[in-house]
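Help wanted!
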Amino acid sequence: GAVVSQHPSRVICKSGTSVKIECRSLDFQATTMFWYRQFPKQSLMLMATSNEGSKATYEQGVEKDKFLINHASLTLSTLTVTSAHPEDSSFYICSARSGFNQPQHFGDGTRLSIL
Amino acid sequence: KQEVTQIPAALSVPEGENLVLNCSFTDSAIYNLQWFRQDPGKGLTSLLLIQSSQREQTSGRLNASLDKSSGRSTLYIAASQPGDSATYLCAVRPTGTASKLTFGTGTRLQVTL
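Answered by r_m:
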């Protein structure tokens, strides 16, 4: 089956640090990748959608200068949380699909903790 | 704006029981509906996907139904096992070019010995 690998699984860092999270589709080409954020005991909230080679489309209320998304290839997207602060601590999950009519496949998530 | 609600928010059942999880959505113009499982601190595992033209899908002990006109879906789990303990999320995908999933609030299931 389709596998999405997300790395790292956990990050703990100091306030002000920038953190990069990688999302890779291992056995398919991901034309579209999605980045979600999940707070404890809450559901997933879509942050942005990225198509390979294009700028990401951000959801309302998500700061694009804060959360930099790059989708430079059909198998890799990265989310960089710039100058992270404690309120950015959350669980970040990526997903990918191989075509418009295809289902999304999810990574295992990254637990980000900002001290 | 699509809203997806799941009831109950939490459920605890003894092993062996059959159970039903509910998902309701406000906009019936959906492309498909998907049920996911999420273990603590993990990502999502897709369980079943129902296209808008389908009424149900089955996989092993799981059966998901879809009633698009009433905006409801159910996930039936037969003969529950402790390994079924997890959070179950439903998500709907709308028709049209805006293909973003809208997730429900989830049901936290615990199956006890």
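OP: Thanks! One thing I noticed: The mean pLDDT of chain A is 93.
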